[in-house]
Model the fold of this input.
Amino acid sequence: MTYATRADLETRFGTDEALDLAGLQAGRIDVALADAAAEVDAALAAAYRLPLQGGPWPRLVGIACDLARRALYDDAASAEVSARADEARAALARLAAGSDALLDAAGRPAARLQRAAHAGPAPAMTPDNLAGL
Done:
């Protein structure tokens, strides 16, 4: 799923910066955005059914833009660019853990996956039961 577009990146960071980062390599911005979307999906897959329904998801647009921007800088990213990407990854972790809510543009939360609770007898083989074997 695509969370951000080239236009989103240019709106947030300026057309000049986006063009400078892409250089003469056609499609470099699209690749960075696709890689950012894959990172978002990987972080959220255990907590949400993907692709997300509804939307748009403004928080994910910002996160994807920060991740793509960092990728476009290669190894020469400024401290601010790196810090924003680090915060984007931390935000993804909070969203996946459920400590932050993932809201669509209308303020509706994304439905989290329901996990089955463990039920049944206690395990018969425990470290205490196996001691001395």
About this structure: The mean pLDDT is 89. The CA atoms of residues 47 and 96 lie 5 Å apart.
